């Protein structure tokens, strides 16, 4: 069952001295630093940041119990709060009041990422007033009301700060409200209500996540997924607000996957006292001593660990049966490429409609990237002056699976797979080509080559012929050459190839070569004349070919034709030394005599 | 360029006599080698009311001619016999089995002087071969019937098949197109074509009994899962026999039994052209015609299901060893009906768009016939839509005959060539052969000279055939 855990704690947690009677632990969400304060700082303060390098240790005088301790950004200034009304900065600094607002506040929440503070106001506490800080200014955003499940009478504080969290999901700031079930209102289970908080404009209720259970919950955001931990069942649920639910009302979401617990975690015992062979101890997940912070932090103060929560994608493949939905889900995840490719490989063992859906989802994203890339190129070429802001180069996420990825990781091995009917192999390849065409993506030559190789392997030449007839395999010189090479096994390939070269209109030399190789010397000559290339062709090439046929009259005709050309171009029927036709002149004389040569015309 | 000009277009009489069938018979000389047993040689004879001795005499004569001419060229036996009054065409499709066809001028006593050039050997030779191919499509080879039930079964089968088939044979409307036996392909953009591919693949996957599928629109082929030669004869059957027999349901009245079926909530126009006419009928029979197609080392027998929605027709072929049930037909109807209806309207829409884009100037103002031996693609602006009975042409039979003559000339040599003929009726007829392709153009330009005609044809090639490599 371990393959089913789709959430895990990171492998390298931040370790700190666990909380105890002599050691107080604080966490600063802005810098993501853990402070371990021993004996009020007298025996040491150890600060551990998200990476090993940002660890700081110092001592300070014990001036009473520390209520809160933080660094400013860049660890420049330390602030310590020991009483409810004073903050001490160990360096002497002066503070200046920039702006003030007078509001009755029950509690506040701060989102360091977006620098937005949320204040709970009114008696019930459900009118939330956000402020945004930007470059030294504080601006009031429009306030909004959280709908309470029951309105208490008489009015009392009914919205707890524990039930509100702020986080950025898909680039947009959201306020998440954990709405507990209430026996009086007819709700049978808890839900998470998301309010979209835009920079400008009103805050709107945007999504409802159905938890289908009751109890104690905690929220995290990982890879734009809302993770809801449920303590009593020791499981977690994930929600993707971009995933459309066909059976639900607009913007109501069911969990993407069935509830599963976080992957079991073992704490490696370390330190000098530990015998190396001692096995790691399993860590108690969903412990009541856990603290959860946004977006993806879980802290166990009693054990002295800070973990980042992570999503493991491979287990989702088997948990989500609907492959279309699975693709929608995976395409929005960060490290999705290999998983998506494995889903593609897996789907080629399934049925065609599913294969088609998977390809279409894939190519939709691929096409969007290509378009963005193209409009960026166009914008760059037309100069940076155009348009207000300089356009950013589109980021190629892992979800962009191009044709070479598909060829390398999925299709080429699929066509070699034993025990698959060739009918199905071709159907899958055609389905991919159909999907690319549907999104107007130019199909790469190697895919056509794969189709042709498969068809030829199974002697399906008539099928190939029909595909070419309807231009399903787009014209190109390499493809025309490939067809020429098939002529010995399938004679019509010759005609198909010539047609293709003709349509390319840039392959006249190749057409001449093909015709000459077939000893169709007159045909080649007539062709090169019809396209106006007669003046520039190598006479020697034609004379060689004419002589090889052994047809003397043909040789005569071709020879005279070039003499006429020379006459027209240079006023003389003779060949230039650079044309290397001497042996043919000799041959001509031998066959037809000196007098048969065209004489320079006298003007 | 070979030029024949001016040329007398034959048959300038006021009245045209169209040939029809005088007799048609099949015999095997090894079945009655002894004297007095000659009747045993005859496997089929049309008209059947002919007196026995005359049948024997006619068969004997053919046998003698074939034997006699064989002495001159053992590898190539006689193909046709011209006499003052009529012609006969011989064809030996299988060892010792001979098919003989004698066309005749309709309604005229055979004593009248025969217009020698009115009947083209190539055209009628092709008709005889087609008769055999059609028999073989539905019955397999003569040899197969012999193995299964001896002469008795073979004669039964021949009787059953040719009795009806010969009635549909309209010799008077046979022409160059019968020589080609080509397939008209429906012009389609790549995307719609890929959609059809996808449809075919998905249907074959979910109804895995289906071995082969062919897809047609407007009586023109778009996709064939069958090999070329089998498709050629099946196409002939579909377009000249099956499709014309079925009127469009869209044209049928509201209360007509042909009105669209309502499956679930989705309206679709799908219906079976072979097998059950009405799936809801509790008495419905689920029997389909059987056809024989070639496999690598022989023949296989298949059920032929033809299912149509609006102008789109899909042929599904299933091994004859499987018994087809009501459940299967319902499943097929439920799956294919809605999709095919949708595809049909997609194709129609795309076709209209393409037409609009290409504009009226692309519409052919020329009368031409094109044929490609490689993929059997044929295209004719001379022939009107085929109907069940006749194939109408928009040009005078004399001109059609000239086309036939040019075709005979082409058949004699391997080289590419071009022939320009000035007919007496002010028409120019041009034939071009390039690699495996043949093009015949009829121009009505009274005062044009040879150079102008040549230029005109070049222009035609540049507009109508710019997609293909055509040497000029």
UniProtKB/TrEMBL annotation, chain A:
Gene Ontology, cellular component aspect: late endosome membrane; lysosomal membrane; Mon1-Ccz1 complex
InterPro entries: RMC1, RMC1_C, RMC1_N
Domain spans labelled Regulator of MON1-CCZ1 complex N-terminal: 25-93
UniProt xrefs under Pfam families: RMC1_C (PF07035), RMC1_N (PF21029)
The Mic1 domain, residue ranges: 334-576
GO biological-process terms attached to the record: regulation of autophagy
Name of the protein this chain belongs to: Regulator of MON1-CCZ1
Species this chain originates from: Lates calcarifer
UniProtKB/TrEMBL annotation, chain B:
Domain CCZ1/INTU/HPS4 third Longin: 362-460
All residue ranges annotated as the CCZ1/INTU/HSP4 first Longin domain in the record: 22-140
Bilayer-spanning residue ranges: none
Gene Ontology BP term (one): vesicle-mediated transport
Top-level taxon: Eukaryota
GO cellular component: Mon1-Ccz1 complex
InterPro entries per UniProt: Ccz1 (IPR013176), CCZ1/INTU/HSP4_longin_1 (IPR043987), CCZ1/INTU/HSP4_longin_3 (IPR043989), CCZ1/INTU_longin_2 (IPR043988)
Pfam families (UniProt xref): Intu_longin_1 (PF19031), Intu_longin_2 (PF19032), Intu_longin_3 (PF19033)
CCZ1/INTU second Longin domain span: 210-335
Family: Belongs to the CCZ1 family.
Name of the protein in its database record: CCZ1 homolog, vacuolar protein trafficking and biogenesis associated
